[in-house]
Amino acid sequence: MQQNAGVSGYILLLTVQFVFIVIFGIYTDYDTDLQPKNGTVQAEENFVIPKYPHFQDIHVMIFIGFGFLMTFLKRYGYSATGLNLFVAALCIQWAILMRGFFEMEHRTIRLSLANIIGADIAAASVLISMGALLGRITPIQLLIMGLIEIVLFASNEFLQIELMKIVDVGGSITVHAFGAYFGLAVSFILRPTKENAKPGELESASYTSDIFAMVGSIFLWIFWPSFNSALVDGPEQERAILHTYLSLAACTVTAIIISALVSKDNKLDMVHVQNSTLAGGVAVGSVVNLMIHPVGALIIGSFAGLISVLGYRYLTPKMFEKGRIADTCGVHNLHGMPAVASALFSAIFAYFATKDAYGDSLYTIFPGMKNSTIDDNEMIIGGFGRSSEKQAAFQLLAILITVCIAIVGGLFTGFVLKSPTFKNLRTHELHKDDIYWETPDHQEYNRDEHLQ
Amino acid sequence: MQQNAGVSGYILLLTVQFVFIVIFGIYTDYDTDLQPKNGTVQAEENFVIPKYPHFQDIHVMIFIGFGFLMTFLKRYGYSATGLNLFVAALCIQWAILMRGFFEMEHRTIRLSLANIIGADIAAASVLISMGALLGRITPIQLLIMGLIEIVLFASNEFLQIELMKIVDVGGSITVHAFGAYFGLAVSFILRPTKENAKPGELESASYTSDIFAMVGSIFLWIFWPSFNSALVDGPEQERAILHTYLSLAACTVTAIIISALVSKDNKLDMVHVQNSTLAGGVAVGSVVNLMIHPVGALIIGSFAGLISVLGYRYLTPKMFEKGRIADTCGVHNLHGMPAVASALFSAIFAYFATKDAYGDSLYTIFPGMKNSTIDDNEMIIGGFGRSSEKQAAFQLLAILITVCIAIVGGLFTGFVLKSPTFKNLRTHELHKDDIYWETPDHQEYNRDEHLQ
Amino acid sequence: MQQNAGVSGYILLLTVQFVFIVIFGIYTDYDTDLQPKNGTVQAEENFVIPKYPHFQDIHVMIFIGFGFLMTFLKRYGYSATGLNLFVAALCIQWAILMRGFFEMEHRTIRLSLANIIGADIAAASVLISMGALLGRITPIQLLIMGLIEIVLFASNEFLQIELMKIVDVGGSITVHAFGAYFGLAVSFILRPTKENAKPGELESASYTSDIFAMVGSIFLWIFWPSFNSALVDGPEQERAILHTYLSLAACTVTAIIISALVSKDNKLDMVHVQNSTLAGGVAVGSVVNLMIHPVGALIIGSFAGLISVLGYRYLTPKMFEKGRIADTCGVHNLHGMPAVASALFSAIFAYFATKDAYGDSLYTIFPGMKNSTIDDNEMIIGGFGRSSEKQAAFQLLAILITVCIAIVGGLFTGFVLKSPTFKNLRTHELHKDDIYWETPDHQEYNRDEHLQ
């Protein structure tokens, strides 16, 4: 048993934490806003950190939202909530560093609220990948995966946002598509042998675990407008809030109705209600600050709800059957496809973006369309002064590159995790807390297993 | 089974969603604040949307609060959380339109954060009605009810607030009283036959479902100050927060003590703890921005806790016994009676409102008491320049009209739902998820049923 | 049974609530900010109450966080959530008064948002003590304890912050250390006889109750940055947020790894994941606004995670074995030791605090180091113009005095609760909801008890 539990893995992770501390000591300091002010003592009584409520909403999504959404498995609730916390706590530290390396000034990463918002969002991509693999990898494998994924995430995010200047305020491309396809690629490498390719005995919900999952699902639903609007200000922010709200509402109605129409005996399916109702938040992500108008948000949301439910109903079983690609939480239906759709929408709306419709905000929303004379010292792939058609092409390029990096990175990570260095779970160990957790009385546990 | 599941009902609702999209396309656009700004580029870094944290708190109340409060039934947790999400997602879209029609400019409803706050609050009234009927109507009936109710809600809200200029910042009259009596009137029409008028076999809690319900209850408790203060600003807002906090605290202490004193063996009753502790938020709603002073908030809260527990203990059983009016969640005790009390309090405090106590804010709080010369082009029922006595009379008129509209509207809606067009649930189908949901292994489910 | 249930106790508490109302009526009024404004009518549209989101986060911690963290016992979930609500609702009222008495002006306590933030924080200390005693005292004993504790809490808080001018922005000294040692002292007095000193039959978790506890734990984790930054503004506030975030992240990683390393078969222990992951929030509390730098936060967090897990694993069983001091939730490991560590850290950082590092904020952060000529009319124990060494000494004195007051106060309170006036629970009544709650079908309940 000692061998299985991976003492050496835990010691490795402890070393990682120690190394993080050293790197933080060498390379990080406070941002100017957090430094003590000298001279004039300002009245700070009405001081407000503008994005703090947004941050806390996102924080709830990452730790309660993702954590509890994954509790739907009947015997994996400790892992869902506990490993979600573990992997996110490790990844946010690593994300602060990796993302910071790209913005270093004088070899120092200057920290403020913006960095921890960015870190939380980065962690989301890992948690999405975790969803694809839920119950199929060990805690150590999961954390190693997270460490590798954050490196690629931060690089791709920098490439897309800073160098290619694409529009992706809600992170559909950089977070959702990236996380989903990365996780699926890992899942492909770790796929079961043909003999073992059947749904796990414990790969289903109990009545109670399904309701726990609703805690996570609904909190994600509630705070998604904050996720999609955290990186913009002013009218853009309020548009992002409105669009996400409307998209989720239409998505929910459509998804639940479609669920009834395509399910056995026309009964509602909790998997759809927990997951597909959220697809509207993903699908609107890349266009959330654009002039898509309320009706655009509703159409996008409805479409997302539709494809997500159809994906759960028809595509996921097929992917497992034909390609033995397991996707425990169905992240392809909640994050993958809706994110690709969002990228397509962003290309369409960029294509039709005009100075008339956007006024001066055209250049803050699409910085690549700015006149190049202003920002000479900034490097942009594709250059400044883009036409709207060219911006549209870059949006398509963005999703293409992102999915490629995610898949190649995921395949590589899968090979690493499959190596004999790491323990791999055997079939009877899947989706089971008690391999890695002390659970209440083992005997009762087994008996209980047959009850719900 | 196919027939029962109501395919045609779901297709009808899908059509409704489609029609909503069309109407949004024709009649809605962004509010000025959400339009791109031209000319001067403002520094928007410290931009804050003032009511956004309030909105998110209310959003939690609507989707987590109401949803989980209704999970207390042992086998209705999927419906409680899932149908709550479904009906609210549909109703918020409809409420944006219906409420918007009353404020249209140039045939356009201009959307901003204010509209979605208003939509969430409108949805609350439907969810309150849902509480009265929980487990007794089909999903299709529930959604049809919501669609009808929103029309009446929006009309009555416009009548009370805009035309009659009554004071009801926390929505006790327009939301709580309306939702409760509407639901009870529907319940009256759908009442069981005399032979079937006995408490349902599944109409009780399990140990686990009761704790799930506490998730909802406590989140409602926590964020109620935001619900009651979202529509006011400045000192009024901070008073509303303080009053709601104090009222709920006193209500909770009183309700729990009274629960022990009136219950069997002096044990505490979870129904009271989950529901009556919230009555203080309702009872203070109509006076929440008035000068009721901290002590006034405590008295109102204690009184609400007292009548709510007594209502659960003595009135609800009697209503079912004598009138066969079922009220699954006891909304009459949590929303109905406390809201009527709140209206009475508002009449009393309006009666004694003076320029001395309120200063210039007298006229912003009670717009009907303003001098008419200022706002000539606004129509107010009862006219401007009201005396405080007249304002008090209007507060009483408001609750009277609201309850009448709610009851008549509820009776009408009940008749619609009872028509043979809709499937009505039979006795053995009440309070049971598995009529409309795929539930984990049916056999185990039935066995499990007898366990908790 | 009637006798046991303590009707007289409930009537006493009802009287207390009545007395609170009277005292509020005599001694409280609105703060100036909440009074109606006269004369110039300000544009209040963009009005924001700066600390309101912070308040709501703390509010979630107190009522959901503490309440659900304590649901981990398999048959004490009604009490955990319900009594948490009950005792907090009573204590916040009492805390407003007790804390207010120290700041009265013209015999009036002027209420605003600041007072209810302070009241929520005060209630936390009682809920921490409750954690030590969970399942071992009656509701009446618990509430009486809360009433006594609030008096001592408010006095000690005033002594430390206002008179001794110590630094303790996150309340590690005044809240966490105080609450933990107070509770442990009560527990010592109420300790079982030697014959009965064995772990209770029901003193453990079920699979479901452990996941409920994660709801509380994770919400505490998420909102802890708000708890630690609510009482400061400007750069101090943003530093406090960043430090708490980093400390919790490092603490979580360290605690979970150490949990695996020291537990049987190297499996993870839910107790550690639920509790020790939070110790980083406590340990950073007293230094949260100081210039500890990001790396300092990570080191403090890791250290806290380490000692907390070791405490749960080795110290708590020993305390029960040797001293018969029960500590149901292990508050000594989550609140006690990390808080003492935090005080030591605060002494170290105060010792090295210089004008160079802090600029002018040195005197707002450490008011005792200000030049005395400025604030002549304020009394400070130790006087103004302290050196940094002297401030360090005062930090040490603060934790010493606080722990002394907590222990002496707790011993006294324990004697009061042990007196024959109050019913004391017998061994077979421990950790059991159904002594004080109506629970679903008693027979099934007992059968169910043996299942999970």
TrEMBL record, chains A, B, C:
Source taxon at top rank: Eukaryota
GO molecular function: ammonium channel activity
Record membrane topology: Multi-pass membrane protein
Keyword match Cell membrane: no
Biological-process GO terms, alphabetical: ammonium homeostasis
Gene Ontology cellular-component annotations: plasma membrane
Database matches in Pfam families: Ammonium_transp
Protein name: Ammonium transporter AmtB-like domain-containing protein
Highest classification ranks of the organism: Eukaryota, Metazoa, Ecdysozoa, Arthropoda, Hexapoda
